[in-house]
Specification:
Elements (H helix, E strand, L loop, with lengths): L3 E7 L5 H4 E7 L8 E4 L21 H14 L1 H33 L4 H41 L6
């Protein structure tokens, strides 16, 4: 288990702001979603800067940690749900990255501020979407867990 996982991708043939990407997952790789953090971004959404050792609904770390924790409650049943959802999201990110990088390359020499805005906007959008995906997963997993508990521990009422 880990608190964070990184895959570093260095592409020296590209401008440094988009040529160096840290694919970052909060937590273990197996149950985490990898989001691209380009070297050229200058800020992160607020949720990514929050977090302590106490669970918090406004912290990106804790949103991701809650999904992982629910996944570990019944790994064989819930891990595939997490992995499939995150794989689909990561595939969408990959396509959007390619599109953004084409736009970035078309603008970075003649309109560098516009290129920077493209990069920052892309990053903010992806990072916020990752939180939405985690929130939706958390609700789906909690619903499944509730159903599983009800099936295992029959309670006819008081």
């Amino acid at each position: 288990r880990t608190t964070q996982t990184h895959i570093l991708h260095v592409r020296p043939e590209l401008p440094q702001p988009i040529g160096c990407v840290d694919y970052y997952a909060m937590g273990m790789a197996d149950l985490g979603v990898f989001v691209p953090l380009y070297q050229g971004i200058t800020s992160y959404p607020k949720a990514y800067m929050l977090g302590t050792d106490r669970s918090s609904a406004d912290s990106a770390y804790w949103k991701m940690r809650k999904v992982m924790t629910l996944g570990m409650v019944n790994y064989n049943a819930y891990a595939p749900v997490i992995q499939e959802t995150y794989a689909k999201f990561e595939a969408e990110i990959t396509q959007r990255q390619k599109e953004m990088e084409v736009q970035y390359l078309a603008n970075y020499k003649t309109l560098p501020l516009h290129a920077q805005d493209l990069l920052q906007s892309f990053s903010d959008r992806i990072l916020l979407q990752a939180l939405d995906v985690a929130d939706n997963l958390q609700e789906e997993l909690f619903t499944r867990l509730t159903s599983d508990i009800q099936a295992e521990y029959k309670f006819a009422g008081a």
